[in-house]
């Protein structure tokens, strides 16, 4: 029975380049459509000054009425093509961009929520969200830049074709001049980009500071730190202002140089084309066309060079995404459980962190308390049971099978570790409680978790909607809702971690009693140092200094073990 | 727009959000900040006008070249080209001038605005912030400041130049021949129609997009932030479905917005086509009449086609301008809140607390404290216990001066609390909340928020007394380690020891601990309690406790039940009295004495 349970969607390795390829391949249809239509749009844009030139040359200058009508019709036709091509081009373009972003977003989400977890440094949720929105879209933006660059080539092409009919040297001058212009502006602009990045970083630091101060406002008010906080923000804000003003002068100079160069190119083209036209080697229409195109070419050339900088940005984002996708799994295991057992847990020679060679058995149906002197040891124990980590040495057996061999969700369907800092999700209180067991009856678990007073406190009781992780509930209410959810899952082995820290002692007693009754016949492990909870346990195990020092009932230990009294009753 | 317009300059709009300034107030505020730089502002407008006028010469010079070419006069081409070069240089110079001037006028104003907003935000009464949620405030300080900054940096220069260019081009057309200007006006009705069509619909379209993107970010944060919980309960597929749904919705909204935008562009193209055709037709007749030259007619056509870009810029930026205006009014709304006035300083002479018949309600009809009487003599360590929702935290907040009592009398050192200025109150009462926050940045900076002038030795002394010096020294860069968001993550216990160190630095004679150990877990809680007990001895301490060992160690215990004080006395006296507290205590330490607690085999006997 070695069947792999989950298709290994992230089995292949990801690189920045493979992410970019994926973003492109997934959107070929939209990418093709947007490249085509945007190219049509560029051609039409290029033809507008050409058509105006021809209309002046063939109709306005000659006074030929019917010809004027023809040229007007041509111009209007051109506008129809232009507007349709732009409309369809940008719509398809957005589909290509957003589609790729969505695909990567979901790929990331799938990886982050993968049952096998991720090894390595823990990522902040904010960072992951910004990867899944900002960076995913930045990769998608390469599709935008690709279509724009293709359309840029079309624009340059049509301009060259339009000019080459009139004069080869003029074509060379216009093209070479435009390219030179672009190169110079880019070279000038590069140090500017660094400077503006530094400036943005200063501003972002000031904003981050303000947001952090607001987030800690209650704490800040508690010790009266408002004035120093304002002073600190003010100095950050002034620093950002200084950077902005310094870069403003530089930035406007670079922009101005671009304007001057474009004007110079226009003057040069006008001079050459004017002399050719005056000498009769090209028509007046050709002169007007050349002058018009000298101004037009900057846009398509910008589109072409824009691709390079977008690719650099997209590549950086793709690299960040690939790093997340490629992080190794925290735990292994692919086997399916052989059969649903009663839920007997056994640690054999288990070591993790400072825990050394632990042997412990939790019989099916037992209600066991574990007191750990060091919270890190409790965390290490819980991480292995939750399948967030595999034991360093030794094994943990579930109904005789090593949990490290099992696919993590196989273990979790039998052993549920309810995290102490469990998150509640958006939805009603009832939705949250039922999330792991859609059909569960709420009455018994709500009563056992001590939530029966919820109707009094919250206007809509269990139907109250929770926003943003349940911030509208008090700490005690949140903890009890999370407990009710864990109870509703009704698993053979339930592991609770300090389930009652946020409630008063009377409620705590009531809850423990309720949990004990509800879990009758199933295994429950409570990692806690609350005397009220421990007093209800069949057996209490004391983990002190990495080894089990003693075990017994709460009363026995209180009576006979001074260290236990110190740990639990101090 | 998300918020309704209206006479909302008052301090409390009914939707519970923070105040938003009216248009008049926003203008007055902006003008007040601009006043010291009025001469720069005038100079900016002048530079814009001249810069736009200079650019008009280009199409005319091109026209002269065309006329010279038609006449076959090669020599006559040179001087208009020289003019073109001069124009290019002048345009460049004015670009530098206007953009720099705009930055120097607007950026300092913006900096002052954001600083005033943050200052007011930090001084807002905590009631106001709690009603609106900190989210509203953070959104204003990050989002709205960003919107206004972008507007000033990109939109204002482009928009100002475009507007001037449009006007100047109209003048240029009229100079060639007034009839060109007249026919060009044919494009105006379609432009106006396009704009009206756009503005009527753009609000909801873009608002829907913002809402959808916000919902997507929230769902991602919800699922990703709760990844451990999602894994534990095997909710992965459900959450992926939720995220995919939200992401697709946001995508659809952006498609709708793009469809809408491209339809708007189509309408602008229509008016461009009408205008160009009209100018060409006018050129045709005027050239035939001999009123203008072919070169002038070409110049007119180019003048007009040069209008496309600035007009489009103006039209496309209208909604950004609207958005920036709304953001600005939200910022001015906060910046306009008066700072708490500095009263003549009443000085706390003796750290005692006195409450007489104090009542408090968060909303109408939801009274939390129903007449509390309580006297805490100087130097007493008083524990306040009671069930969740009994009003303990509210009581703590009132004493800390975060909320004023609705009625009754609250005295500190014998003086009514409202006689103390905010600074004196801050010096006198320190509060450590259940909420844990470590300020992002070097740890030393976090501590200096409590006392900016403290030396490193002072800070280390405070850390030592808070029981934190050992682990702080062990951090990668010691006291200079970057902690908080984006830095080294501290455990809740460490964070609260830091909070204790801050209070010691403030050196307040009255200290309130509001379930300060709740997040720390049992082992951490004990550590913290011991440190607090040592460090705060001699001060007046109000201790909101749910761990009753804390209460047992206090000088006196007060039991709060549904907003009233029901018991008061020493731990031993209350346990003997057999009331409320005695029941709580026996539940807490049920098996402290093996002879009388409930045995694990008979849990039902434990029901209190």
UniProtKB/TrEMBL annotation, chain A:
One Pfam family it belongs to: ABC_tran
UniProt entry keywords in alphabetical sequence: Membrane, Transmembrane, Transmembrane helix
User: Where does the ABC transmembrane type-1 domain lie?
Assistant: 36-313
Q: Where in the cell is it found?
A: Cell membrane
State the Gene3D superfamilies in the record. Answer: ABC transporter type 1, transmembrane domain, P-loop containing nucleotide triphosphate hydrolases
**GO MF:** ABC-type oligopeptide transporter activity; ATP binding; ATP hydrolysis activity
In what residue span(s) does the ABC transporter domain sit? Answer: 340-570
UniProt name for this protein: ABC transporter
Regions that span the bilayer = 31-56, 68-90, 144-164, 170-189, 254-273
Give a Gene Ontology cellular component term annotated to this protein: plasma membrane
* Domain of life the protein comes from: Bacteria
The family database entries (InterPro entries) matched by this protein are listed as: ABC1_TM_dom, ABC1_TM_sf, ABC_transporter-like_ATP-bd, ABC_transporter-like_CS, P-loop_NTPase, Type_1_exporter
Q: Which residues form a coiled coil?
A: none
TrEMBL record, chain B:
Superkingdom of origin: Bacteria
Output the Gene Ontology cellular-component terms.
plasma membrane
Listed A to Z, the keywords are: ATP-binding, Cell inner membrane, Cell membrane, Membrane, Nucleotide-binding, Transmembrane, Transmembrane helix, Transport
Q: Which Pfam families match?
A: ABC_membrane, ABC_tran
Q: How does it sit in the membrane?
A: Multi-pass membrane protein
Where in or outside the cell?
A: Cell membrane
PROSITE patterns assigned:
ABC_TM1F, ABC_TRANSPORTER_2
SUPFAM superfamilies registered for this protein in UniProt: ABC transporter transmembrane region (SSF90123), P-loop containing nucleoside triphosphate hydrolases (SSF52540)
Per the database record, which ranges form the ABC transporter domain?
Answer: 353-587
Q: What is this protein called?
A: Multidrug ABC transporter permease
- Species of the source: Parafrankia soli
């Amino acid at each position: 029975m070695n069947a792999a349970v989950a298709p290994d969607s992230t089995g292949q390795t990801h690189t920045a380049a493979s992410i970019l390829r994926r973003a492109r391949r997934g959107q070929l249809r939209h990418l093709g459509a947007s490249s085509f239509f945007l190219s049509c749009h560029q051609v039409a844009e290029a033809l507008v000054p050409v058509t105006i030139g021809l209309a002046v040359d063939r109709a306005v200058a000659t006074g030929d009425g019917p010809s004027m009508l023809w040229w007007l019709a041509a111009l209007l036709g051109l506008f129809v093509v232009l507007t349709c091509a732009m409309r369809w081009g940008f719509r398809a373009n957005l589909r290509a961009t957003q589609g790729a972003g969505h695909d990567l977003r979901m790929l990331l989400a799938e990886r982050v929520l993968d049952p096998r977890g991720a090894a390595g440094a823990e990522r902040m949720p904010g960072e992951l969200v910004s990867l899944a929105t900002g960076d995913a879209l930045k990769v998608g933006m390469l599709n935008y830049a690709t279509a724009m660059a293709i359309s840029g080539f079309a624009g340059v092409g049509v301009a060259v074709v339009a000019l080459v009919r009139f004069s080869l040297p003029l074509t060379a001058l216009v093209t070479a001049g435009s390219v030179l212009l672009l190169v110079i502006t880019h070279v000038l602009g590069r140090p500017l980009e660094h400077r503006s990045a530094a400036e943005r970083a200063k501003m972002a630091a000031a904003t981050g500071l303000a947001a952090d101060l607001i987030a800690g406002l209650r704490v800040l008010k508690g010790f009266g730190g408002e004035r120093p906080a304002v002073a600190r923000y003010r100095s950050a804000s002034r620093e950002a202002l200084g950077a902005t003003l310094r870069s403003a002068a530089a930035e406007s100079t670079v922009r101005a140089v671009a304007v001057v160069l474009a004007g110079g190119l226009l003057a040069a083209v006008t001079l050459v084309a004017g002399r050719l036209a005056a000498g009769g080697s090209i028509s007046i229409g050709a002169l007007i066309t050349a002058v018009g195109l000298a101004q037009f070419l900057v846009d398509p050339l910008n589109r072409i060079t824009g691709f390079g900088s977008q690719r650099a940005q997209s590549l950086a984002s793709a690299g960040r995404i690939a790093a997340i996708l490629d992080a190794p799994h925290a735990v292994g295991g692919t086997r399916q459980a052989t059969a649903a057992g009663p839920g007997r847990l056994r640690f054999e020679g288990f070591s993790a962190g400072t825990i050394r060679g632990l042997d412990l058995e939790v019989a099916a149906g037992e209600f066991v308390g574990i007191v750990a002197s060091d919270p890190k040891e409790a965390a290490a124990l819980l991480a292995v049971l939750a399948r967030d980590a595999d034991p360093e040495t030794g094994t943990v057996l579930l109904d005789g099978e090593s949990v490290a061999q099992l696919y993590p969700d196989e273990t979790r369907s039998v052993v549920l570790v309810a995290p102490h800092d469990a998150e509640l999700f958006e939805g009603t209180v009832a939705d949250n409680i039922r999330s792991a067991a859609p059909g569960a009856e709420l009455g018994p678990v709500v009563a056992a978790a001590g939530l029966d007073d919820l109707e009094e406190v919250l206007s809509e009781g269990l139907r109250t909607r929770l926003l943003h992780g349940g911030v509208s509930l008090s700490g005690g209410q949140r903890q009890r809702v999370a407990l009710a959810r864990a109870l509703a899952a009704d698993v053979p082995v339930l592991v609770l971690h300090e389930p009652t820290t946020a409630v008063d002692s009377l409620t705590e007693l009531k809850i423990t009693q309720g949990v004990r009754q509800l879990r009758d016949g199933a295994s429950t492990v409570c990692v806690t140092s609350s005397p009220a909870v421990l007093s209800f346990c069949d057996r209490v195990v004391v983990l002190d200094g990495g080894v089990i020092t003693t075990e017994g009932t709460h009363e026995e230990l209180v009576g006979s073990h001074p260290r236990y009294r110190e740990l639990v009753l101090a | 727009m998300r918020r309704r317009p209206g006479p909302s300059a008052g301090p409390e709009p009914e939707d519970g959000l923070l105040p938003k300034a009216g248009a008049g107030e926003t203008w007055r505020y902006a003008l007040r900040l601009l006043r010291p730089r009025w001469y720069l502002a005038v100079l900016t407008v002048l530079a814009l006008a001249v810069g736009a006028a200079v650019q008009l010469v280009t199409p005319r010079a091109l026209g002269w070249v065309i006329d010279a070419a038609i006449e076959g006069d090669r020599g006559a081409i040179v001087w208009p080209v020289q003019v073109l070069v001069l124009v290019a240089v002048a345009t460049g110079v004015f670009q530098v001038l206007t953009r720099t001037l705009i930055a120097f006028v607007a950026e300092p104003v913006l900096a002052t605005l954001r600083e005033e907003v943050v200052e007011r935000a930090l001084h807002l009464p905590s009631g106001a912030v709690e009603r609106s949620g900190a989210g509203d405030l953070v959104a204003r300080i990050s989002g709205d400041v960003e919107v206004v900054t972008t507007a000033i940096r990109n939109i204002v220069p482009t928009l100002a130049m475009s507007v001037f260019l449009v006007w100047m081009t109209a003048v240029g057309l009229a100079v060639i021949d007034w009839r060109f200007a007249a026919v060009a006006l044919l494009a105006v009705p379609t432009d106006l129609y396009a704009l009206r069509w756009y503005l009527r619909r753009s609000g909801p379209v873009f608002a829907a997009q913002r809402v959808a993107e916000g919902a997507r970010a929230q769902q991602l944060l919800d699922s990703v932030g709760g990844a451990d919980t999602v894994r534990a309960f095997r909710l992965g597929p459900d959450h992926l479905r939720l995220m995919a749904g939200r992401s697709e919705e946001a995508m659809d909204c952006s498609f709708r917005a793009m469809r809408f935008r491209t339809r708007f562009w189509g309408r602008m193209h229509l008016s461009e086509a009408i205008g160009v055709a009209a100018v060409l037709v006018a050129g045709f007749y005027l050239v035939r009449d001999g009123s203008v030259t072919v070169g002038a007619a070409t110049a007119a056509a180019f003048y007009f086609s040069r209008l496309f870009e600035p007009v489009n810029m103006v039209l496309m930026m209208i909604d950004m301008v609207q958005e920036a205006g709304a953001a600005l009014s939200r910022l001015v709304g906060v910046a306009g809140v008066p700072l708490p006035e500095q009263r003549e300083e009443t000085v706390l002479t003796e750290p005692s607390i006195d409450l007489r018949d104090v009542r408090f309600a968060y909303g109408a009809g939801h009274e939390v404290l129903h007449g509390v009487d309580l006297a805490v003599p100087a130097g007493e360590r008083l524990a306040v216990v009671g069930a969740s929702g009994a009003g303990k935290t509210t009581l703590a907040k009132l004493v800390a001066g975060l909320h004023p009592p609705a009625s009754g009398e609250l005295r500190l050192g014998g003086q009514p609390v409202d006689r103390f200025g905010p600074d004196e109150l801050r010096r006198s009462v320190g509060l450590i909340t259940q909420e844990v926050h470590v300020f992002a940045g070097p740890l030393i900076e976090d501590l200096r928020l409590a006392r900016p002038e403290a030396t490193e030795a002072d800070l280390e002394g405070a850390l030592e007394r808070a029981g934190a010096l050992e682990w702080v020294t062990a951090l990668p860069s010691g006291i200079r380690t970057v902690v908080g968001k984006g830095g080294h993550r501290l455990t809740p216990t460490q964070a609260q020891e830091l909070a204790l160190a801050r209070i010691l630095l403030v050196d307040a004679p009255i200290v309130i601990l509001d379930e300060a150990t709740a997040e720390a877990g049992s082992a951490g809680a004990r550590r913290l309690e011991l440190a607090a007990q040592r460090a705060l001895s001699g001060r007046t301490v109000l201790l909101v406790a749910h761990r009753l060992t804390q209460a047992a160690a206090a000088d006196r215990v007060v039991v709060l039940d549904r907003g009233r004080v029901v018991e008061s006395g020493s731990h031993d006296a209350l346990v003997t009295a057999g009331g409320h507290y005695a029941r709580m205590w026996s539940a807490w330490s049920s098996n402290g004495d093996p002879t009388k607690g409930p045995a694990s085999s008979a849990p039902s006997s434990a029901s209190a």
